[in-house]
Every structure is written in structure tokens, then in C-alpha cells.
Amino acid sequence: IAGITQAPTSQILAAGRRMTLRCTQDMRHNAMYWYRQDLGLGLRLIHYSNTAGTTGKGEVPDGYSVSRANTDDFPLTLASAVPSQTSVYFCASSEDRVENYNEQFFGPGTRLTVL
Amino acid sequence: LAKTTQPISMDSYEGQEVNITCSHNNIATNDYITWYQQFPSQGPRFIIQGYKTKVTNEVASLFIPADRKSSTLSLPRVSLSDTAVYYCLVLYNFNKFYFGSGTKLNVKP
Lengths: 115, 109
Hints:
The complex is a heterodimer. Helix content of chain A is 0%, strand content 47%. By secondary structure, chain A is an all-beta fold.
């Protein structure tokens, strides 16, 4: 059972470039999430999705976009990367909708460096 | 906007009980509190979740006082493998998650 996979594992990116972080889950979970983790700040929610076809903004959505074309995939796109987006990005999923206080299952993370 | 606060770090010895407290002053009456554990280079992993009073599972207990302004994660008889960062998570207003900044627990032999 794979759970949640993220790609790439790490990436170094020039500022201004476009980048898509991939996230796939095989648990048929309804809700999916993207977080960024910065030293001393814990995890901050970027975007979430309750079901395929719907998305919502989290605490720090600016500079990021997401889509949810199907249940399994939830890509995160940086349209024009900036150095402040250097972070570790985690994708997560939960069986039920966001507001139902589900256990979240996290992927292994993507370490992104923007120069 | 209310968020969560935790101690930055804690030290303990093997076999001791460890209590980590999280403050969440403006939590609503119907919001849950969840705790996660994170090892280096891994994603967080669910430990326990509660709404009020006390919840216990095979690895931890969660104590929530009546005013719900804080919660305490209790780890009984910790071992070296419990060295990790522990986060509390509170869901405000149905779709606003706030993780605490994490408590780094260092368990010594």
C-alpha cells in the first residue's frame, strides 16, 4: 500500500520559473491538503480540497494554485517561483471532508529551493 | 486570530512520562484537537484526537480541561524512539487549520 506519493523528492528552481509539485493518493480519500513547513513555523495550510472538482484556500495561499480533476491527484503549482517559497511541502489526505476532523495521512514531502 | 502555542523543546529520560501542553485560547465549542508526531525527513503522523475531557489510545492520552483553552498530550514511559517533534492541530471555523510550531522532544538514555 503506497498511501501518498509526492514528486519530486527535491528540486532546485530558478526564481521566476513555473513548477508543479505532484501528489497522488491511493486510499480513495475525499479530502486532500497541501502544507508548507518552514523552520520554527510548523506546518501552514496552503490549499485544500474536499472532493474532486472543489478547492479552498488555507492560511497561506498566495503564489500557489491547485486543481482537483479526480480523487487521486492534487497538484500544487507555483506560477512564478520566488525565494520565499523555499520550503518543504507536504501533501496530505483524509477520508472525509475537512470539517469532519479526520485523521490526516501525510506524504514524504518535497524539498524545494528557489534561488 | 487565535492560533496554537507550544513549548519549543523538552528533555526527558527513558521510562518517564512526558506531558506536552498546547494553548488554543479561542477554540470553538465544537472544534477538535489533534496531535501529530514527526520524525526528521518524514511527514507528520497522527497520534490522538479529542474533543473534551480525556481520550486514551495505545500510545498516548489527551487531556482537555473544561474551558478547552489548552490540551495536554501525555506519553507514558517514553523510549529513545519517541524522540521527535510533536504538533497540536486545531481546526477553527470548519476549514482553518492551525498547527502549533511544534515541541521537539529529546529522550535521553
